[in-house]
Amino acid sequence: MSFSTIWEPTTLVRIRPLWPALGPLAAAIAYYLGAEAAFAIGTLTQQFAPFWPPNVVLLCALLVAPRRHWPLYIAAAFPAHVLAEWGVAMPLPQLLAAFGCNVSLALLNATAMRQLLRGPAWLRGLRNASLYLLFAVVLNPAVVALGAGFEPVLGDGDPQQYGQFWWRWYLSNALANLTLTPVFLTWFHGGSRASWQLPTRGRLIEASLLILGLVISCTVAFDIPITRTTESYFPALLYLPIPLLLAATVRFGGRGASGAILVITVMVLFRSMHGAEPFVGGPPGNSVPSVQLFLAVFAIPAILLAALVEELRRTNDRLSAVLDGISDGYYTLDREGRITAVNAKGAAWCGSAAPEELIGQNYWEVARGHAADRSWVRRAMETEAASRGEISFADGRWFDIHAYPSPSGLSIFCHDITEQRAAERAARSTRELLQSSLDAMTAQVAILDGTGKIVAVNAAWQRVAELLAEVGEHYFVGANYVEQCERGRPHQREIASGLRRLIRGELNEFRYAFASDVAKGTWLQLRGARFCVGAELRLVVACEDITEVKAAEGSLRRLTGRLLRSQDETGRRIARELHDATAQNLLGATLGIGQVLRSLPRLKETARVTLEESRSLIEQSQREIRTVSYLLHPPMLDEAGLPPALRWLCEGFAKRTEITVDLDIAPDIGRMPLDIEAALFRIAQEGLSNVHRHSAGTRVRVSLGPDASSGADPKIVLMIEDNGRGIPTETLASWETGRESPQVQNIGIGLAGMRERLHQLSGHLEIRSSPNGTIVGVTVQLRVIGDSSLDTLPRAGSTSAATAGQRPRRPFMPRSGDYGPRNGPVRQST
Questions:
Q1: Are 333 and 327 spatial neighbours (Cβ–Cβ below 8 Å)?
Q2: Of the chain's two ends, which shows fewer C-beta atoms within 10 Å, N or C?
Q3: In which residue ranges of the chain is pLDDT below 50?
């Protein structure tokens, strides 16, 4: 239980609102009682005052009170001063002068202490104690005593004795600040609330014994009669209280020193009050200066020593708090292995609850089974060099030990690293599992840091790196892979460029396929991806053999080409059969019905109507078969070329769908290889079909012409542009990346068919879409077939005996100026 627990809740809280009025009143009462106590001790005349307690009371009141309340305390002290001094018949001028000097000294001391001392622990440091002695004991009393020396003169004092008056007033106030003020500063206003906790029984017994010893030593020193036998020992007897004063100071700090000084002061004054001089046994009144100097000599060193003890104790407390707050166990050993200091965790490690119980015990005995190797510790002491080691126990715990030698012994820090070791084992197991998984992969895998340096590889990468090292390329751990690629061959520079974009965050994934120039006929694919480990960037690079994939893609592309050609040939054959056989048969049936109608004029009306309807249905079927035949393979595509076929397609599309079609064909478009013409026609056919089914547009533009930017390599460009709602972004992205999704499936196989046809021709398909419409662009490079002149090729829509029914032998080759601005392009709005 603490003092504040008892005092504050019950009393202080209740009187705190009344303190501005009760404080000055209490100070005035204490001022008056202090004066009366001084008179009772023996200061019944103006010439004898060992110390003056009222000034101490007023100083302590000013230290406690706020500065704005100081006038209240001074005003309250004035009636108490008048009442006390009036009792000894002091003249009014002398009374006023005495009060002025008392107030001046109290104000000077309070101001100096508040400005210079770092309160409220006024005397708990050598700096504060020294400043207190300098100002409150030496300078301020001496300065005020210059005026107070004239105070007795205002009564019946002799001006010739001014020096004696000054000296007595100075000593009485200096002695009061040496003996009484420290008691208040250390016991009631010099510490925290925690310092008011009740002491233990042992401390109470120790303090009681010290007080009893001081009383006995002072009695022996001051009351022993002076005889011939004791005369030679008298100076030594005066020092009897000093050991006990030092013991109280060291054991109890500032409170012990101020309490011991107060006991000695009371004993000296008690001797004087009973008519006996404490020194030499002379008559009363002759040795007051000696008493004052004696007490000053006792008090000043005790106050300074107490300040050093308090400062050292605070330093030790802070160090102990730091050591108790760390997660390490801490010991300090002397040369014999005895524990001189230990923190709470160190004591718990040795199985002790209180660190104090281990002080002075042998470390090797109390820490048996937990201590470091004695030879290792001894070696650290002998070499005087810091050492480090680890200890493991049967229960799985690990400790990291650090030893720091000193002239007096050794400081040991023990840190529990059990969790760290467990984490290291888990991390090691994870790394081994990851490395085993990477080594089991056939792909060559490497991990790069944010600069492109290789930090880890798998077994396949290591084997290839060893082979490439023979040709001067180094891709081992520690090498910078990106920089190596930047200095390499063209495909390696492409890889370096992609990895740089990964590092900058422009890409999240990078892929690049290339033909190996080391292993001929081998295709490789390098994939890169970025990830982060905490705040550090990492790249994973995987290089795998895709030769079989490339071969499968080639086979699939050839098979697709054959399938598309077979599909075209089948459509051509079916169209021819429908045109040459089925359509002719239907024509014959129509002619037969007409002949029947002409040869039997008297045919019944019902039979005639039936025959007319049958002829109408046959003619409709004949038109539909002709349309289907043209859609399967328009004859004019073989006979006249692509431009007339596109015109026919656009005219029929506009009639069937009521969508306006703008057809723009560049002039001088001649014949091209049949596979190119067929592919472009089928792409235009599929594009228009998609416009009708998906775009909800009202207008479409179809253009055909050469690519003006192709230079020496002629290319043909087909564009289909509509004003519909466009393709959804997700659907277009899925189609571009080749990922399957329901949206792509809903488009049908049309776009995939376009792409496959262009793959067969090494062409390029580009689709741009927005909410305002879609543009489908097709670019195909023209191939030269044969050596005949361009003039021998038929123009679009023309037929000659040499070309009718034949496949053209070479494509359209634009004449001079065809790749520049076109003059008078053929525009047809259908």
A1: no
A2: N
A3: 1-13, 43-47, 192-194, 281-285, 740-748, 784-830
DSSP code of residue 585: H
Stretch (H or E) spanning 600: none
pLDDT at residue 398 in the model = 82
Residue 628 confidence (pLDDT): 74
Q: What are the Cα distances from residue 738, in Å, to 731, 745, 752?
A: 10, 11, 10
Which residues 6+ apart lie within 8 Å of 283 measured at CB? 277
Reported in sequence order, the residue ranges of 327-397 that DSSP labels E, i.e. its strands, are: 329-334, 339-342, 387-392
Angstrom distance (rounded) from CA 593 to CA 78: 150
Range list of H helices, 470-546: 481-486, 490-504
Instruction: State residue 735's pLDDT score.
Output: 64
Please state, in angstroms and rounded to a whole number, the distance separating the CA atoms of residues 749 and 561. Answer: 15
Phi and psi at 528, nearest 5°, equal -130, 140
Q: Are 473 and 484 in contact (CB under 8 A)?
A: yes
Q: What is the 3-state secondary structure (H, E, C) of 184-227?
A: HHHHCCCCCHHHHECCCHHHHHHHHHHHHHHHHHHHHHHHCCCC
Q: How far apart are CA 31 and CA 244, in angstroms?
A: 32
- Give the closest residue to 219 by CA, choosing from 263, 256, 175: 263
CA 306 vs. chain centroid, Å, equals 48
What per-residue confidence (pLDDT) applies to 193?
A: 46
Determine the distance from the C-alpha atom of residue 522 to the mean position of all C-alpha atoms in its chain, rounded to a whole number: 48
Q: Contact, 295 vs 179, CB < 8 A? A: yes
Evaluate the CA torsion angle 10, 12, 18, 21 in order and state its sign. positive
Question: Which residues share a beta bridge with 525?
Answer: 513, 544
Residues 6+ apart with CB under 8 A from 655: none
20: its two tokens: 């501005």
Question: What is the spatial distance between Cα 812 and Cα 676, in angstroms, rounded to a whole number?
Answer: 11
pLDDT value for 140: 92
**What CA–CA distance (Å, rounded) separates 731 from 156?**
119
Residue 19 confidence (pLDDT): 62
Contact, 403 vs 380, CB < 8 A? yes
3-state secondary structure of 395: coil
Instruction: Output the six-digit token pair for 664.
Output: 């723009």
Element (H, E) at 444: strand 444-449
- Tokens matching residue 462: 């290591």
- At residue 289's C-alpha, the angle toward residues 287 and 295, to 5°, is 105
| Contacts (Cβ under 8 Å, ≥6 apart) of 132 | 113, 117, 122, 123, 303
CA angle 781, 783, 785 (to 5 degrees): 170
Q: Which two tokens stand for residue 354?
A: 């209180």
Nearest-angstrom CA–CA distance, 620 and 721 = 33
At 367, which amino acid appears?
A
Three-state SS letters, 266-318? HHHHHHHHCCCCCCCCCCCCCCHHHHHHHHHHHHHHHHHHHHHHHHHHHHHHH
The predicted model scores a pTM of 0.50
Give the residue among 414, 442, 255, 389 at the shortest CA–CA distance from 328: 414
**Distance in angstroms (rounded) separating the CA atoms of residues 668 and 212:** 133
Q: Helix count (H) and strand count (E) of the chain? A: 31, 16
As given in the structure block, the two tokens for residue 420 are 């760290």
